[in-house]
């Protein structure tokens, strides 16, 4: 499976990428919304995208809306990741397939990739 991981905190992104790679997935990392848009605009499409909501340039909600506007990502699995427990009060999260609260457990992440 092709996976895109987007988080400005590189330690989180790199750790999750290592886990996904160890499970046999092809992983692309992005540390900003702009980098994620460039990666998503490349050849093919990602099967699974995990977006941090609190990105410094484009918040993850806006990024998800931009991706969903493309036919390429209209039906792909996109999950949000955030430390904000009141995220549903801040944004309409219906563009996401699910929300994950930080800190994310490795078992939870592996389950997302498997399911």
From TrEMBL:
<protein>
    <submittedName>
        <fullName>Transcriptional regulatory protein TcrA</fullName>
    </submittedName>
</protein>
<feature type="domain" description="Response regulatory">
    <location>
        <begin position="2"/>
        <end position="115"/>
    </location>
</feature>
<keyword id="KW-0597">Phosphoprotein</keyword>
<dbReference type="InterPro" id="IPR050595">
    <property type="entry name" value="Bact_response_regulator"/>
</dbReference>
<dbReference type="GO" id="GO:0000160">
    <property type="term" value="P:phosphorelay signal transduction system"/>
</dbReference>
<dbReference type="InterPro" id="IPR001789">
    <property type="entry name" value="Sig_transdc_resp-reg_receiver"/>
</dbReference>
<dbReference type="InterPro" id="IPR011006">
    <property type="entry name" value="CheY-like_superfamily"/>
</dbReference>
<dbReference type="Pfam" id="PF00072">
    <property type="entry name" value="Response_reg"/>
</dbReference>
<feature type="modified residue" description="4-aspartylphosphate">
    <location>
        <position position="52"/>
    </location>
</feature>
């Amino acid at each position: 499976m092709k996976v895109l991981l987007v988080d400005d905190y590189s330690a989180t992104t790199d750790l999750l990428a290592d886990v996904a790679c160890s499970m046999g997935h092809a992983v692309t990392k992005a540390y900003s919304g702009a980098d994620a848009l460039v990666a998503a605009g490349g050849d093919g499409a990602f099967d699974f995208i995990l977006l941090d909501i609190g990105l410094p340039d484009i918040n993850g909600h806006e990024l998800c809306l931009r991706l969903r506007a493309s036919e390429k990502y209209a039906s792909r699995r996109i999950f949000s990741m955030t430390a904000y427990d009141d995220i549903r009060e801040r944004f309409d999260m219906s563009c996401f397939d699910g929300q994950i609260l930080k800190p994310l457990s490795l078992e939870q992440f592996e389950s997302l990739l498997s399911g």
